[in-house]
Write a structure and sequence with these properties.
- This protein is 36% helix and 17% strand.
- The protein is α/β, with parallel strands linked by helices.
- It has 2 domains: 91 residues, no CATH class; 348 residues, no CATH class.
- The strands form 3 sheets. Strands 4-5-6-3-9-12-13 form a 7-stranded mixed β-sheet. Strands 7-8-10-11 form a 4-stranded mixed β-sheet, covered by helices on one side. Strands 1-2 form a two-stranded antiparallel sheet.
- The chain contains 10 helices and 13 strands.
- The protein binds 2-acetamido-2-deoxy-beta-D-glucopyranose (NAG) (4 copies).
- The site of one 2-acetamido-2-deoxy-beta-D-glucopyranose has 3 residues, from loops.
- This is Trichome birefringence-like N-terminal domain-containing protein.
- Keywords: Golgi apparatus, Membrane, Signal-anchor, Transmembrane, Transmembrane helix.
- It comes from Dioscorea zingiberensis.
- It is a single-pass type II membrane protein.
Length: 463
């Protein structure tokens, strides 16, 4: 992070808490000042020497209290204490910054998306709903409105500044890729990524960089179980619960931010192994009738924990790293996957119109629980690892209209086309609802940056 940038981030934060802080300081200082004048007016100034009131350096004070204070030093100290309290309150979630982005509504908006099929070249055919001729465009005119705050529009400059000289990695399945491609399209509006490498079947591992002044790196690692897994010819996956997938794990220390996004592969037929024996299977089929069915939620919990542990153990002790896990985003198949109109909705659900399903609730729950525990553990250990939940489950559940459906090929629109109709009611059109995931991601990163810069100010002062 450039020093200039840090100052900017800090300034922005100060603007945000400044008003609250000054008001708080005034209210807190009034009685204290009164008390002070009562106590010290008639008593000789034995407390006036600096020994009892070690005043921090003006630099530290500025960093912490946001304003250079041209007032007597003892009062400065009181202000500092008030600032301490204010920061604590801020951390407890009173402030805007701790807005719960997961709870809200989709509201109609006249402002369309920031990019389209012409301006972004990175949209793959399967998600290019505009390019494939999806006739309705209403799905593009909704914004996510959290209950507690306003979700800022995606600011590509700000995002690029945050990832300046950093490496942000998306790790997971095709929804991780969907989110990554949305992010690339959003960023392409201000700077063009350069593809640095791609390999693997269907280029499942790719890396881009953004040129100076940003020098940022974005990459994607295909790892739908996060642990080692193999396709078999018998049509099921072999998943090794105690072997983390080295293809991403071996590169952890090159990453500054990680976005994990998994879930859907747990619904596929699989045999799960641990410590050299079979734990059980899922969707076992007749081949594996000897194994017991394991709950997919337990498997999801195990791999989430394994990935978090891997990060905690492998990341060098003093490194700063941001790790967000995206919660489950359900599909919206209503009809057969190979008939036209498998997801025919053209509007979001209204709040309460559709109950959130059991699977998505449970998939979300295991992730939230694991990440919350991990966040607490690293905080107690004083590590600089930030674990966050990118909680999109509700946003996603409410958007049956955001999928390509049968507009996964351009020729669906051809005159006289009679099928076959293959439908995708799982991934998201680009542009589409998934762009909001990245707006929320930016807010989580912003919050992390603010707190890191405040902490650094505090550390400087304590030194
Ligand atoms: C696509 O976006 C570009 C750039 O914002 C704009 O000039 C163009 O009119 C858009 N095209 C369509 C079809 O909306
Ligand atoms: C983009 O979509 C429009 C329809 O919205 C279509 O006319 C145009 O050919 C598409 N452009 C590309 C480059 O796919
Ligand atoms: C950005 O990358 C270029 C080329 O890799 C390098 O020459 C330049 O010094 C980098 N800039 C910063 C600010 O790190
Ligand atoms: C199931 O277990 C029995 C007894 O251990 C064994 O003979 C059989 O081959 C197993 N079947 C499969 C499909 O693994």
């Amino acid at each position: 992070m450039g020093a200039v940038y840090q100052q900017e981030a800090h300034k922005e934060y100060c603007k945000h808490v400044g008003k609250k802080l000054i008001l708080g300081a005034i209210y807190a200082l009034l009685p204290l000042a009164l008390l002070h004048s009562l106590l010290f007016r008639s008593i000789p100034s034995q407390h006036d020497d600096d020994q009892d009131y070690s005043i921090p350096s003006s630099q530290g004070l500025r960093a912490f209290a946001c304003e250079p204070l041209g007032v007597p030093r003892r009062v400065s100290l009181l202000v500092l204490r008030v600032a301490c309290v204010a920061k604590k309150i801020e951390e407890k979630g009173v402030g805007l910054q701790h807005c719960d982005y997961s709870n809200g509504d989709w509201v109609a908006s006249t402002q369309g998306p920031k990019y389209n099929n012409t301006s972004c070249k990175m949209i793959r055919t399967g998600q290019n709903c505009l390019g494939n001729g999806r006739p309705d465009t209403g799905y593009l005119y909704w914004r996510w409105q959290p209950r507690e705050c306003k979700l800022n529009e995606f600011d590509p400059h700000l995002f690029l500044k945050f990832i300046e000289k950093r490496h942000i990695a998306f790790i997971g399945d095709s929804l991780a890729r969907n989110q990554l491609e949305s992010l690339l399209c959003l960023l392409t509006t201000v700077s063009s990524p350069v593809l640095k490498y791609q390999y693997g079947e269907d280029n499942k591992f790719r890396r881009w960089t953004f040129d100076p002044p940003y020098n940022a790196t974005i990459s994607i690692y295909w790892s739908p179980f996060l642990v080692k897994a193999m396709d078999t010819t018998q049509g099921h996956n072999k998943v090794y619960m105690d072997s983390i997938d080295k293809r991403w794990a071996s590169e952890i220390n090159t990453m500054d931010m990680i976005i994990f996004s998994i879930g859907h592969w747990f619904n596929k037929p699989a045999i799960f192994y641990e410590n050299g024996r079979v734990l059980g299977c899922h969707n076992c089929g007749t081949d594996n009738s000897n194994h017991t069915e394991v709950g997919i939620f337990d498997m999801m919990r195990k791999v989430t924990r394994a990935a978090i542990d891997e990060v905690s153990e492998r990341v060098y002790k003093h490194r700063e790293i941001f790790v967000a896990t995206t919660t489950f985003s359900p599909d919206h198949f209503e009809g057969a996957w190979d008939k036209a109109g498998a997801c025919p909705k053209v509007k979001p659900y209204e709040d309460g119109e559709k109950e959130i399903g059991y699977v998505e609730r449970e998939m979300r729950r295991v992730v939230v629980e694991e990440v919350e525990v991990a966040a607490k553990v690293v905080e107690e250990k004083g590590r600089r690892i930030r674990f966050e939940i990118l909680d999109v489950m509700k946003l996603a559940s409410m958007r049956p209209d955001g999928h390509p459906g049968h507009y996964i090929h351009p020729y669906v629109m051809a005159k006289g086309y009679k099928g076959p109709f293959h439908n995708d009611c799982l991934h998201w059109c680009l542009p589409g609802p998934i762009d909001a995931w990245n707006e929320i991601l930016l807010e989580l990163i912003k919050r992390w940056e603010h707190e890191e810069s405040l902490n650094k100010g505090l550390v400087r002062w304590l030194d």
